[in-house]
Amino acid sequence: xxxxxxxxxxxxxxxxxxxxxxxxxxxxxxxxxxxxxxxxxxxxxxxxxxxxxxxxxxxxxxxxxxxxxxxxxxxxxxxxxxxxxxxxxxxxxxxxxxxxxxxxxxxxxxxxxxxxxxxxxxxxxxxxxxxxxxxxxxxxxxxxxxxxxxxxxxx
Length: 155
Known about the structure:
alpha+beta
C-alpha cells in the first residue's frame, strides 16, 4: 500500500464567525456556554473533514474553560486549525474571540482542543493523511499537541 500524501495545516484552517442573538442567551443576556461549545465542535469537524476527506466524529475535548463571558450582540469568531495528526485521529485547536461591534473591542474567551476521529463508510476509524507543518507556529502548536497526546494516553 502506498503511503498517503500529506496535507498542510493551511489546507484545512477555518475562521467561523457568528453574531450572538437573544436565542443564544439566558435572560441576563449572557450567551450559553453550550452554544459556544457547539460552534467550536462544528468548526473542529469542518477542519477534520477538510483534512481527512472523511466523515469525522468528536472523540474527546480538552480544556473548555471560559475566561470571559459572551453577550448578545457580540460577534463570536472561532479560529480552528489542525495541531496534530495521528493514524486515525486529529487534534483541532479552536480559539474563540468575542467582539463588541460598536467599539471593536475583542476579547479572547477560550481556547479548546478537540480530538476528532475519521470514519470509513462502515463507521470504523480510518487512516488520515499526515500533517505537513509549514510555519514555526505550526511546529510550536504541534509540539504542544504531542504533549497533550501523551497526557491523554497516560489517562
